Amino acid sequence: MSDVSVDAVEEHVSQVCLHRPPNNFFDTALLGAVADAYEELAETTGCRAIVLRSEGKHFCAGLDFATNKEQDIAALYRNALRIFAAPLPVVAAVQGGAIGGGLGLALSADFRIATPGSRFSANFSRLGFHHGFGLTVTLPRAVGEQRAADLLYSGRRVEGREARALGLCDELVDDDDLIPAATAYARTLAASGPLAVRSIRATLRQGLVERLRLAMDHECTEQERLRHSSDFAEGLAASAARREPRFTGT
Predict the structure, then answer these.
(1) 239 belongs to a structural domain
(2) pLDDT digits over 88-144, tens only?
(3) CATH number of the domain where residue 60 is located
(4) pTM recorded for the entire structure
(5) Could you count the other beta carbons within 10 Å of the beta carbon of residue 240?
(6) Is residue 144 part of a domain?
(7) Angle of helix 73-85 relative to helix 208-226, nearest 10 degrees?
(8) What backbone phi and psi angles, to 5 degrees, belong to 20?
(9) What is the mean pLDDT of residues 185-197?
(10) What is the mean pLDDT of residues 153-161?
(11) How many H helices and E strands in the chain?
């Protein structure tokens, strides 16, 4: 099975699914496949909205730094920008964790449906690292500047009910209802005039891709600088050992 599948369009909605369980770590190729799917669906007659979902325990745990230490971050972010630039509205079905870059991927969607057990975390600071995937722009946009600062500085995890209160997700449902609820939400969007929805979405997101491009350029620079630090090595080691990191500021 491909790492990304695209379902047939039903009632004007298609599902794009990640297939790298249990954590659905991404890399440049996976994000490129998601962007390809979005762009192709935008040209597909009758498709008006997309459900982004994942196979396995977690929605997405971002980039696996332990096995992708040499990942070209700039190339990865070029595909991330293509995801943001695609014209159809997207509803993300977030089960388990949306962690690090996985939170960034969830926030690329217009709406997020989650469960009480879902977990959201911009955990970069707990790795001794700078955040990425455009969270500089998208996290304050979702929760406000002050709450975004709290989440980015602390790297703490937010579970479903708090996430709903903060604005990280738009609806909470039981685990078994997650995909049906996300699909129903997407079909509600698809029931409106398709030309109008695309036009309204473009207006609401006017300038967003350019802001993200500038933010990702800065994020990439900081990530390249910090990926060689002792703190980042310690953060990865602590995460692998499931212990508290002992940062030295070097």
Answers:
(1) no
(2) 999 999 999 999 999 999 999 999 999 999 999 999 999 999 999 999 999 999 999
(3) 3.90.226.10
(4) 0.96
(5) 10
(6) yes
(7) 160
(8) -135, 55
(9) 98
(10) 97
(11) 10, 9
